Amino acid sequence: MPVTDQNPFFSFSKDNPGLLVISGDWLLEHYSQLRRLTAAAQRHATAITQVDMERLDKLDTAGAQLLAELLGRAQLEQLTDQPGQLPEERRILLRRIAQSLDEKEAHRPRSGSLLVELLERTGKATAVFWGHLVELLGFTGLTLASLAANLLRPRRWRVTAVVAQIEQTALNAVPIVALLTFMVGAVIAFLGATVLDSFGASIYTVDLVAFSFLREFAVLLTAILMAGRTASAFTAQIGSMKANEEIDAIRALGLNPMDILVLPRVLAMLIALPILTLVAMLSGLFGGALVCALALDISPTMFLSMLQQNVEARHFFLGIAKAPIFALLIAIIGCLEGLKVSGSAESVGEHTTSSVVQSIFVVILVDAMAAMFYMEMGW
Predict the structure, then answer these.
(1) Can you tell me the distance from the alpha carbon of 209 to that of 217, in angstroms, rounded to the nearest whole number?
(2) Partners of 56 in the beta sheet?
(3) What is the DSSP string of 287-339?
(4) Nearest 5°: CA angle at 204, between 202 and 209?
């Protein structure tokens, strides 16, 4: 039907063809009829210059959506910006519909070349990475500043909280760390024995196990385990408190969440990770010694003797020196992601996953940088 025909819902003025007069009830019960009329009228929507809604009786969300499709975002925004033209509740409804049109336009898939889309996604990922890096550096500075402020004030130390976190972080993790590093030490000894035996140098399996665990594997495996086990726990604990508004309650009591939630966990990790690294070193060496005794006929006495003769103590210190750095990074990332939780269970899960991924990535990256630094220094 021509759009100039009269209908119960809208019509074009005969004196002013650009004036659209809205009338009747734009409700869900008339949706099918309104849909047909607006679809026909959209062919002439560009000719609409003015809208008269004084005859509009009733309006709901379905009718407002059809009005937005008929008038377009620009016309709808112009209409809602005119004071006195519409009741306040209708202005709010139509304004929200106009905003939803903007959101749909922003999320609408763009037709373009694959290269452009790839570059766009690369740019967005780079921006996200840069934002995470800035947040991490800022939170690290805030944590160190809070730690320095409390260091000379023994009354503000929360010894009970630190001890409780050490128990959860260190003592409860000893079995899994010891078992994992024991098995990895045994595997490395098996591989070393298999490869070195073809060169008649299977005796150097002892050196391979010792060097690998003292310098790299013990601290790296322990840090990765703590990233998956402890960083996720920190994020989930703090994130749940954030979702339940417990952190807001702490601030309302005049307390600092950094002192109560973050510093005890950071201090516990700084104490726990070197201890667990030492346990990992001993377990890995024990696993290697057991394989050497069973497969290579190298007695534990000979294993210890070669270990003492061929492996210097500096390798132990170079490996253990990385533990506090890893501990600080893991604890800070876990706490930061927990504080970034928005308030829903879904957000807690997302940030918990993010904390584990970020912690493992940072640990491996820093370990690679430390290995290159040790190599350049000749250590």
Answers:
(1) 10
(2) 24
(3) HHHHHHHHHS---HHHHHHHHHHHS-HHHHHHHHTHHHHHHHHHHHHHHHHHH
(4) 110
pLDDT at 66: 78
Does 50 map to a domain? yes
Range of 26's domain? 10-107
Residue with tokens 């490869």: 195
Q: Which residues contact 37 (CB under 8 A, 6 or more apart)?
A: 1, 3, 7, 9, 10
Q: Residue 151 carries which side chain, given as an amino acid letter?
A: L
pLDDT at 4: 45
If the chain, 379 residues long, is cut into consecutive pieces of 10 residues, what is the mean pLDDT of each piece?
Answer: 53 67 77 76 62 75 77 72 69 75 54 78 89 88 88 82 88 92 91 80 84 90 91 89 85 86 91 93 91 84 86 88 92 90 81 90 92 87
Which of 199, 335, 206 is CA-nearest to residue 259?
Answer: 335
Neighbours of 135 (CB within 10 A): 14
Ordered strands of the 19-26 beta sheet: 10-12, 19-26, 50-59
Q: Are 236 and 294 in contact (CB under 8 A)?
A: no
pLDDT for the residue 256: 85
Query: Does residue 147 sit in the same domain as residue 100?
Result: no
Say whether both 84 and 198 belong to one domain.
no
Query: Are 169 and 234 members of one domain?
Result: yes
126, 132, 137, 141 alpha-carbon torsion, rounded to 10°: 160
Residue 303 in domain: yes
pTM, entire model: 0.68
